[in-house]
Structures are given as structure tokens and as C-alpha cells.
Amino acid sequence: MKRPLLIGLLALASLVHAEIHAKPRSIAMSQDQIDHLAIKIASLTASPDVPLLIAPAVVVVPVDREFLVSSPRPGLLRQLRANIGDTVEKSQVLAQIESPELLTLQQQFLTSVSNLRLSELEYQRDRKLAEEGVIAERRWQETQALHASKVAQADEARQMLVMAGMVLSDIDALSKNRKLDSQLSIKSPIRGTVLERLVTVGARIEMQAPIYRVADLSELWLEINIPQERVQAVSVGDQFAIEVDDVAGHITLLGKSVDRVSQTVLARAVITRNDQRLRVGQHVSVQILQRKSQPGFRVPNSAIAQQGGRHYVFVRTPPGFDVVDVTVVGKYDQEALIRGELTGREQIAITGAVSLKANWLNTAGEE
């Protein structure tokens, strides 16, 4: 019984296929009828990119563009001068810390500077005496060694102030006016955006305690989780599309390992055009696109009619519409990528395909 049934189904399918191809390939329709049915017409949009798959992704900052601003010395946080989301300039003061240790470092620096000045006087005096042969060579060597030690101590004390956050101009001013100041200014290392504030005013913070997270957002990446069974279809250089307009980029790296839990492969994509639409930490759905040598056309899903397992679009002509077979080679969110006997100069119905299909089938039935 099964074999005759199968033969009957195949015969029926052949009859349906033949009937479709026997239908007229044009629909006569006036402009008044088109307006009455609210059929909208639009030009074809060529697209060389074929959608491969949709995968989840998160927006991240490249690691070399993100900085953790910390306190070089312990102290009391007196003031914060930047809020989350603020754009800050390089060397802009972000926070003020009251640091007793800074006073100690400044005092050590001034002491080392004073000792160096005394050593410099002894060095110049003994050098002159050594040139005149008044003092022994051994004493001159001892004076040179002592002077070198004082220079090293002064350099070390200066470097400790630099590490504590003081700039060289402030250190030079300190050596001249000898005025101690316990206020430590924490400055931004780059021009960027404040992503996170990690402390509150009044807190006592330790050495290297994090205060702000600042990043240069001029370049952003996407970290895409691609199902491991689909990763072979993806290549470095493939483009991507997301639901946010005016965003473009391409894949630059495919990971070499599979996540044990999610069974996905991490792909990295560089966002080359953002227009401030994407933000760090944002989760998006990414559609990966692959460029093909044979381009297709992007049309709304509403422009495509189906009949007997085949797809059609309706091309505008002076008498009405021509029915053109197409192949759907990819799916976007609300659009499809099609190929067929189209030049790209045609205009098609992008709404009202259901009405046109019914008209087409009724016309065929009348004949």
C-alpha cells in the first residue's frame, strides 16, 4: 500500500508544479486598483552580503585602552571630581587625597636636597685642593664616593615623589619654597570616559587602592559567542549586522578553544562605525554576514509570496506586474536576501503581495 501512495503523492506534486508553471506570468492592474489595494512599490536594493547566523555578543573595550586609576599612597579621600560617564582629559585631576605619607616623602626629599648641597660644596672644595696637590688622593676618592651617594639619595627621593603622584614642576617648586603639602592629586592617565567609580568620599584608602576605571572609547570590540557546530562557516573578515543602525565592523579573530559550559567559540569583531549607538557592556544579537561574488537583493519579507514551495516577487510593469521566480538565500530580521532573474533596476511590490498572489491565482483559474 505504501508504494502506490508514494507514487500518487509524487504525481500530485508534479501536477502542482506543472500547474504553477502553466500560470500566466503577468497580472494586469491599473494604478487605481494598486492604490485601492494599498500596494507599495520600491526599488531593489543590491547586497553582496549573505547572512550566515545570529549569535549573542557583548560590547567590550580593548584591554590596552582601559586604565585603572589608583592611589599611589594611603590616605583619606577628601574629594572626587569626576562622575560616571564624564569625559576627562589627560592629566585632569580626578580626586584629592589627604596623605600623611606624602608629607614624610616631601620631608625626606628636602633633607636629601640639603645634604646634596652640602656635599656639592665639599666636592668642589676638595676637587680644587686635589688639583693643587694639597690633599691626598685617597681623601679625594672618598669625597667623590660620598658625593655620588648624596646624588643617588636625592634622585631616589625625587622619584618617590613622582611615584606618589607629584609632577616634576611641583617637586622643583617644593625644593625652592620648602612648603610641605599633604594634598595628593590623582590625575587621569588618558583622555577618555569614566566607566566606574570604585570609592566614596571620606573613605580611608590603602596604597594602590582603585578609585576610577577610565577607558578610551574611540574603538570598541564585540565578543561574539558562536555555536561550535557553526564556527566552520565563519571566517576572519566577515562583516556583521546588529539591530542598531549605523553600526559596522568585521571579525578579526576566531578563538582556538570551545567554552565547556556553553559549547561556543569566542569571536572578536572590531566596530569600525559606531556613531555612539553602542555602549560598553551592552548585550546585542549579531548577524554575521559573508560577502559573495554573486550579489543578491535585500527585500522586505512582505514582498515575497510563496506557492507550491517556490518563492515569487511581483515586478512593476506598465500593464501591472510580472511574476518573477526568486530564491531566498538568506534571512535578516525583517528582510530576506533573494536572487533571481533581476537586473536591479526593477521596482517591486513591497506590500500587498498576498493580494497580488490571490489576483494571480484567480486569473489563472479563470483561464
Describe the structure.
There is one protein chain. This protein has helices spanning 2-22, 31-36, 100-132, 137-163, 168-177, 353-366; strands at 26-28, 41-43, 45-60, 66-70, 75-80, 87-88, 93-98, 183-187, 192-197, 204-205, 210-215, 220-227, 239-242, 248-258, 264-273, 283-300, 305-307, 310-316, 320-331, 335-340, 347-349. The longest helix has 33 residues, at 100-132. Strands 1, 3, 12, 13, 14, 15, 16, 17, 18, 19 and 20 form an eleven-stranded antiparallel beta sheet that branches. A four-stranded antiparallel beta sheet has the order 4-11-9-6, with no helix packed on it. The chain has four domains: 22-47 and 294-366, conserved putative lor/sdh protein from methanococcus maripaludis s2 fold (Beta Barrel), CATH 2.40.420.20; 53-64 and 217-291, Beta Barrel (Elongation Factor Tu (Ef-tu), domain 3), CATH 2.40.30; 72-98 and 182-216, OB fold (Dihydrolipoamide Acetyltransferase, E2P), CATH 2.40.50; 100-180. By secondary structure, it is α+β, with helices and mostly antiparallel strands.
- The number of helical segments is 6
| CATH architecture identity of the largest domain | Beta Barrel
In terms of DSSP E residues, the strand content is 35-45%
Number of domains: 4
Distance between the termini: 37 Å
At the fold tier of CATH, the topology name of the largest domain is conserved putative lor/sdh protein from methanococcus maripaludis s2 fold
Oligomer state equals single chain
How many extended strands?
A: 21
Q: Label the overall shape.
A: rod-shaped
Largest sheet: 11 strands, antiparallel
